């Protein structure tokens, strides 16, 4: 390469390189309100979840709050079921099932969770609706933000942020109500007599909701949510995604409605940019699949409304697969989907079997370590134990405590104990054994507790019995 060629390259290169500022300020997105088929689906999918979140803490079940995670008492009530810290493996298994179900749905229909039921999406939609009601349409909001400060502008801003804070408070208060009895929490907050932790967490989640749904919005989906980053791993060529049909839409061009379809040498896209104006993450779906797309289908409804006005067929932007865009057909039933479904059914079946077959009783035996053994006046060897007996059922039961493992061993103390539902009791007792029954300095000993009225509720735990070394 000659020196002249190098000079030419240096002159050309700066004009061809596009500079991107990685620390550029966020440009505010002014979304346009749109109605359509998929927005009605979003309404019917989001509102039941939202109402369930808000109303479940106020619902009573067996004279108790329907869902309550009582951390100080280490008891967790979910509808008619009671869970304890010992049941945490079941909670972990439930979370694994939820994650696996999310992967299966994503493989089949893309990011429908993000677009229709994700809390960030639902709350952001509520905040955007409040913004539209207080500040007006998209063009009105743009004009309002550019206008100098005035009484009208201050009033509209106060109403907007006041409504956001109110929704944030209801959200934070309800969330704390899942961990503190909500019927007691409300009057305590109103009278400023709530505890420090309840007040602090309510304020924290109020501000978190206000900031995430009101200010950050699409930034949470684009930069904070890890799901946006690894979702593409679960996609295949038959996954349903929101896509723009370039073969049908290109080349773009504006036109009058009076012109017949196909009369001009342009595609169906009229380049109205309505799909960009309604997008909550501010992307142009016509640029292809992008990780910022949450699959909310707002662009589909916007484009369909334009196609209707132009008397063109719907579906220029639609839920489709890469196979279909390339001229093929979407394979609905494929090995990956079938495998996901079968494994998911198996996991759900195992989970519910464990839930309904679990024994609501926990027994722990702790031998006194300060005194390995003691010798009675009759020559018998005694060990002292503390039994931790937890009745994890909702009903009261009477339990008989027995021992096995050493011939002739007997319990010195009370062996029958009555516990209320959810009660935990520490029981101190002594076990006496004749020296001739012990073959080694340490012998395994099993404690068993059985409910008198319901023998199926029983638990066994092991410990060691110590004697002097001969």
Could you please describe the fold and organization of this structure?
- The structure is a single chain.
- The chain is of the alpha+beta class.
- It has helices at 3-16, 37-55, 88-109, 112-117, 119-135, 138-146, 151-177, 182-190, 196-216, 218-224, 227-230, 246-249, 274-277, 298-310, 322-325, 335-357; strands at residues 67-70, 75-78, 81-83, 241-244, 317-320, 361-367, 374-375, 381-391, 397-404, 410-412, 416-419, 424-433, 442-451, 458-466.
- A hairpin with a 5-residue loop joins strand 7 (374-375) and strand 8.
Share of helix, binned: 40-55%
> What is the tally of beta strands?
14
Oligomer: single chain
User: What proportion of the residues form beta strands (DSSP E)?
Assistant: 15-25%
From the helix content, strand content and strand pairing, which structural class follows?
A: alpha+beta
Q: What ranges have pLDDT less than 50 throughout 5 or more consecutive residues?
A: 5-16
In whole angstroms, how far apart are the ends?
96 Å
Q: What is the ordering of alpha helices and beta strands?
A: HHEEEHHHHHHHHHEHHHEHHEEEEEEEEE
Q: Label the overall shape.
A: elongated
Largest sheet: 5 strands, antiparallel
Mean pLDDT: 88
């Amino acid at each position: 390469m000659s020196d002249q060629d190098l000079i030419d390259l240096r002159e050309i290169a700066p004009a061809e390189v596009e500079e991107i500022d990685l620390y550029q300020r966020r440009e505010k997105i002014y979304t346009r309100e749109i109605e359509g088929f998929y927005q009605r689906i979003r309404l019917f999918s989001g509102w039941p979840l939202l109402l369930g979140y808000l109303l479940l803490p106020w619902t009573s079940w067996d004279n108790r709050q329907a869902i309550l995670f009582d951390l100080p008492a280490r008891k967790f009530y979910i509808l008619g079921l009671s869970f304890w810290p010992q049941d945490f493996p079941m909670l972990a298994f439930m979370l694994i099932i939820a994650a696996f179900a999310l992967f299966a749905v994503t493989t089949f229909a893309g990011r429908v969770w993000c677009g229709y039921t994700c809390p960030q999406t639902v709350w952001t939609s509520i905040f955007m609706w409040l913004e539209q009601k207080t500040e007006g349409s998209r063009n009105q909001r743009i004009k309002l933000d550019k206008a100098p400060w005035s009484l009208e502008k201050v009033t509209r801003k106060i109403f907007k942020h006041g409504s956001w804070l109110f929704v944030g408070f209801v959200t934070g208060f309800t969330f704390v109500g899942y961990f503190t009895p909500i019927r007691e929490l409300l009057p305590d907050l109103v009278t400023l007599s709530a505890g420090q932790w309840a007040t602090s967490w309510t304020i924290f989640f109020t501000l978190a909701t206000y900031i995430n749904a009101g200010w950050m919005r699409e930034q949470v989906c684009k930069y904070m949510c890890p799901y946006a980053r690894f979702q593409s791993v679960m996609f295949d060529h038959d996954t349903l995604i929101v896509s723009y049909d370039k073969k049908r839409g290109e080349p773009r061009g504006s036109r009058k409605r009076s012109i017949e379809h196909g009369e001009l040498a342009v595609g169906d896209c009229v380049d109205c940019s309505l799909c960009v104006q309604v997008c909550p993450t501010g992307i142009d779906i016509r640029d292809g699949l992008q990780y910022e797309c949450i699959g909310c289908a707002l662009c589909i409804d916007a484009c369909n409304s334009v196609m209707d006005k132009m008397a063109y067929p719907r579906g220029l932007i639609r839920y489709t697969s890469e196979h279909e865009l390339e001229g093929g057909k979407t394979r609905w039933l494929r090995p990956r989907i079938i495998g996901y479904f079968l494994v998911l059914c198996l996991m759900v079946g195992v989970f519910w079997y464990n839930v309904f077959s679990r024994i609501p009783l926990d027994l722990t035996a702790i031998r006194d370590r300060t005194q390995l053994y003691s010798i009675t006046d009759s020559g018998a060897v005694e060990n002292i134990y503390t039994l931790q007996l937890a009745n994890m059922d909702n009903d009261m039961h009477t339990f008989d405590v027995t021992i096995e493992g050493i011939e002739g061993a007997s319990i010195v103390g009370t062996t029958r104990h009555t516990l209320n539902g959810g009660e935990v009791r520490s029981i101190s007792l002594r076990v006496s054994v004749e020296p001739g029954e012990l073959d080694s300095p340490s012998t395994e000993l099993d404690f068993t507790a059985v409910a008198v009225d319901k023998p199926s509720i029983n638990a066994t735990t092991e410990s060691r019995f110590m004697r002097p070394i001969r």
